[in-house]
């Protein structure tokens, strides 16, 4: 399966070190935690295929479907086309889809 993320021992060890570094640096803030997660994602999933998910805007609840170039371009943050909120649903690249793969007859 193409989109399956495999977490290796090396990765969990690196993540553990990163968490420890944050804790000793005075505790994690929201920014430093996000930066760490971003670093982790960029380091270990640099070319990860975007994960198809059903997305709703957390602010206005509008359905978010990535179309056109956004449907194929890997992106972390999504911009609501209704209210303009930009949010990041996961640390890995995601793509908002109408149907999850396998839940609709294709072609
Ligand atoms: Zn999007
Ligand atoms: Zn919205």
How many helix segments?
Answer: 3
Q: Provide the structure class.
A: alpha+beta
Largest sheet: 2 strands, parallel
Radius of gyration: 16 Å
Proportion of residues in extended strands: 5-15%
Keywords:
two-stranded parallel ribbon, 6 strands, about 110 residues, two-stranded antiparallel ribbon, alpha+beta, globular, 2 domains, single chain, binds zinc ion
Q: How does this structure look, described?
A:
With 107 residues, the protein is an alpha+beta fold. It has two domains: 7-46, no CATH class; 47-101, no CATH class. 33% of the residues lie in helices and 13% in strands. It is built from three helices and six strands. Helix 1 (9-24) packs antiparallel against helix 2. The chain starts with 8 loop residues before the first helix and ends in an 11-residue tail after the last strand. The site of one zinc ion has 5 residues, from loops.
Brief synopsis:
The protein is of the alpha+beta class and 107 residues long. It has helices at 9-24, 30-44, 69-72; strands spanning 51-53, 55-56, 63-64, 78-79, 86-87, 94-96. 33% of the residues lie in helices and 13% in strands.
